[in-house]
C-alpha cells in the first residue's frame, strides 16, 4: 500500500511542477516563499489523490463463511497470489509488475515485515477448519491471513439453516461485523464484498445469509457478490433443499449478484478434464479457485496497456446485472486440463472461442461433451417459444455475457460471434449485453485462456429441481419442526417459494 501511495505522491509532484510551469504567471505582487511552497504542496497533494484514484485498484474484502467458504477462500487467495507472482506471465517485466500491484491492492494488504495479508474475514462456528486454514496460509510463507481476522465458536449449526440464521447470527452479529469493519478501514478505496459460502449447510448458508443482510444494511453503497456452492443432486444432507431455497431467497433480497458453482459440474471437470481418479474436496476447491481467479485477476481498462480496471466488482455488475430480478451468474473456462496434458497442447483463439460459444448456447459446463446440434434461432425469425424447464436440450438464452481473454496475441482474438443478437433477450441491445476484457498477461500456466461469465437461463433447471424437491417435503410438513423451533415459520418458506418461482418464470420468459 505504501509503495503505491509513494508512487502517486511522486507523480503528483511532477504534475504540480508541470502545472506551475505551464500556467501564465499572474500580474500580482510576488508571494512569499512560504506561501508559494504551501500552494505548490497543495497542488501536489491534490494530484497525488487524483493519481491514486486513477491508477490503483479498489479493494475487495472477502468474507469466508463456514467449512466450505473457508476452504475455498484459502484456495482462491493461494491461486491469486501464485498467479500474480508467476514468472511465466508471457509479458514484459513492467507489465508483470503492474499486474502484480493491481492484484495485491485488490486482495492483499501489507504488514511491516512485507508479508502480504489477505483482505479477508474468516467465520465459522467450529474452530477446526479455521485453524487448518490459518496454518496452511502461514506455512506457505508467501502470504497469510490477519492475526485478528477470524471468528469461531465451539458449537456448529448442525446443517440447520434456521440455527445459523436465527441463533448464531444475532448472537454474534456485533463481533463479526466489527471484524469486517476493521478490514474495511484498511482499504484506501472499497469496491465491495465477496462472500464465499455454501448454499445447503447451516453455518455457511444460514449465517451467511444473515451476514449478507447486515452488510446490505451497514454498507448499502458497497457492492456485494456472493459466491455460492450448489449442492450435489444426491447430497447427504436430508434438508439441503430447504436450506437452499432459504439461502437463495434471502440472498436475492440483499446481494447484488450470485456467482454460482454446481458441485456436480465441477466434479465432472475434475474427472474428465483434470484426469483425477479419486476426487477430493481439495481438488474441487482448486478448480473453483482457478475459475474465480480467471475472473478477478486484473484486465486492461479501456485506457490501453498497463492500465488495469480499478473497480472489478463494479465493472462486473455493470456488464452483467442490468436488472435486479436477474442476478444469477455462472462461469465457464477454456481450456481446463492437467499439467501433463497442458505440456503437449497448443491452442488458437479462434478454436477456443468457437468452443466457448457453443458451451454457452448449449449450456455445457465444460468443453468435453458439447452438444453441437444446438443452434441459436435465426435472426429475424419469430422465437420458437418460451423455454421449458422440462426440456432436455434447449438453446440457452442470455441476458448478458462477459468474455475475459488472457495470453499471447490477445488483441488478435475475434469475439464477434458473441455479439450475435440471437444469443440475447430482446429487451437488451447486444451492444449493452456483451463485453470483453483482455490482457496479454497469461493466467497461470496457460499460454491462452478464456473465461465466460454469463447471466443466462443456465441455472433454471437446477433451480426448478431444488424448488420442486423442497415443495414436496414442505407439502408433507417433513422436518419443519427443526426450523420452526428457531423462529423460521411456514410463512417464511412460502415467501421463499414465491420469490424463487418468480425468478424461474422470469428467466424462462427471456
UniProtKB/TrEMBL annotation:
Q: Does the keyword GTP-binding apply?
A: yes
Start and end residues of each Tubulin/FtsZ GTPase domain: 104-304
Single Gene Ontology BP annotation: microtubule-based process
The terms describing its cellular component in GO are: centriole; cilium; cytosol; microtubule; nucleoplasm
Chief subcellular site?
other
Q: Where in the cell is it found?
A: Cell projection, Cilium; Cytoplasm, Cytoskeleton, Microtubule organizing center, Centrosome, Centriole; Nucleus
> For this UniProt entry, which segments traverse the membrane?
none
Task: Identify a single GO molecular function assigned to this protein.
Answer: GTP binding
Please provide the record's keywords in A-Z order.
Cell projection, Cilium biogenesis/degradation, Cytoplasm, Cytoskeleton, GTP-binding, Microtubule, Nucleotide-binding, Nucleus
Q: Which PROSITE patterns match?
A: TUBULIN
Assembly and interaction partners: Found in a complex with TEDC1, TEDC2, TUBE1 and TUBD1.
Q: Per its database record, what is this protein's job?
A: Acts as a positive regulator of hedgehog signaling and regulates ciliary function.
What family does the entry list?
Belongs to the tubulin family.
* The name this protein goes by in its record: Tubulin delta chain
Q: Which organism is it from?
A: Bos taurus
Q: What high-level taxonomic lineage is stated for the organism?
A: Eukaryota, Metazoa, Chordata, Craniata, Vertebrata
Q: Which gene encodes it?
A: TUBD1
Amino acid at each position: 500500500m505504501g509503495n503505491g501511495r509513494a508512487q502517486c505522491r511522486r507523480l503528483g509532484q511532477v504534475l504540480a511542477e508541470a502545472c506551475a510551469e505551464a500556467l501564465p504567471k499572474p500580474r500580482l505582487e510576488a508571494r512569499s516563499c512560504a506561501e508559494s511552497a504551501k500552494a505548490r504542496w497543495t497542488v501536489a497533494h491534490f494530484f497525488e489523490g487524483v493519481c491514486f484514484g486513477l491508477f490503483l485498484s479498489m479493494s475487495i474484502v472477502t468474507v469466508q463463511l463456514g467449512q466450505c467458504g473457508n476452504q475455498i477462500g484459502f484456495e482462491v487467495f493461494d491461486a491469486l497470489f501464485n498467479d500474480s507472482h508467476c514468472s511465466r506471465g508471457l509479458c514484459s517485466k513492467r507489465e508483470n509488475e503492474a499486474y502484480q500491484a493491481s492484484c495485491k491492492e485488490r486482495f492483499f494488504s501489507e504488514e511491516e515485515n512485507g508479508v502480504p495479508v489477505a483482505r479477508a474475514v474468516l467465520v465459522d462456528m467450529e474452530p477446526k477448519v479455521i485453524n487448518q486454514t490459518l496454518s496452511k496460509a502461514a506455512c506457505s510463507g508467501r502470504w497469510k491471513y490477519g492475526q485478528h481476522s477470524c471468528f469461531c465458536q465451539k458449537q456448529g449449526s448442525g446443517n440447520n439453516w434456521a440455527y445459523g440464521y436465527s441463533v448464531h447470527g444475532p448472537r454474534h452479529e456485533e463481533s463479526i461485523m466489527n471484524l469486517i469493519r476493521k478490514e474495511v478501514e484498511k482499504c484506501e478505496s472499497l469496491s465491495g464484498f465477496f462472500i464465499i459460502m455454501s448454499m445447503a449447510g447451516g453455518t455457511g448458508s444460514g449465517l451467511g445469509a444473515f451476514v449478507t443482510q447486515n452488510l446490505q444494511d451497514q454498507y448499502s453503497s458497497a457492492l456485494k457478490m456472493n459466491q455460492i456452492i450448489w449442492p450435489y443432486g444426491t447430497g447427504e444432507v436430508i434438508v439441503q433443499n430447504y436450506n437452499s431455497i432459504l439461502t437463495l431467497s434471502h440472498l436475492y433480497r440483499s446481494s447484488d449478484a450470485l456467482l454460482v458453482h454446481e458441485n456436480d459440474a465441477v466434479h465432472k471437470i475434475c474427472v474428465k478434464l483434470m484426469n483425477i481418479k479419486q476426487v477430493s474436496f481439495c481438488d474441487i476447491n482448486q478448480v473453483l479457485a482457478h475459475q474465480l481467479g480467471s475472473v478477478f485477476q486484473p484486465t486492461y481498462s479501456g485506457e490501453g496497456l498497463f492500465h488495469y480496471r480499478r473497480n472489478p466488482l463494479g465493472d462486473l455488475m455493470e456488464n452483467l446485472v442490468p436488472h435486479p430480478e436477474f442476478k444469477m451468474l455462472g462461469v465457464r473456462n477454456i481450456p481446463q486440463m492437467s499439467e501433463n496434458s497442458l505440456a503437449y497442447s497448443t491452442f488458437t483463439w479462434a478454436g477456443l472461442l468457437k468452443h466457448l460459444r457453443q458451451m454457452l448456447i448449449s449450456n455445457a459446463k465444460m468443453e468435453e461433451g458439447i452438444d453441437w446440434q444446438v443452434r441459436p434461432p435465426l435472426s429475424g425469425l419469430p422465437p420458437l417459444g418460451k423455454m421449458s424447464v422440462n426440456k432436455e436440450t434447449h438453446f440457452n438464452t442470455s441476458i448478458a455475457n462477459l468474455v475475459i481473454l488472457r495470453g499471447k496475441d490477445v488483441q488478435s482474438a475475434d469475439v464477434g460471434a458473441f455479439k450475435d443478437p440471437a444469443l440475447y433477450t430482446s429487451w437488451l441491445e447486444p451492444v449493452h449485453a456483451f463485453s470483453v476484457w483482455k490482457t496479454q498477461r497469461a493466467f497461470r500456466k496457460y499460454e491462452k485462456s478464456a473465461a465466460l461469465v454469463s447471466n443466462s437461463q443456465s441455472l433454471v433447471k437446477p433451480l426448478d429441481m431444488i424448488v420442486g424437491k423442497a415443495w414436496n417435503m414442505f407439502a408433507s410438513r417433513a422436518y419443519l419442526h427443526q426450523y420452526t423451533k428457531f423462529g423460521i415459520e411456514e410463512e417464511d418458506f412460502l415467501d421463499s417459494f414465491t420469490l424463487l418461482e418468480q425468478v424461474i418464470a422470469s428467466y424462462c420468459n427471456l
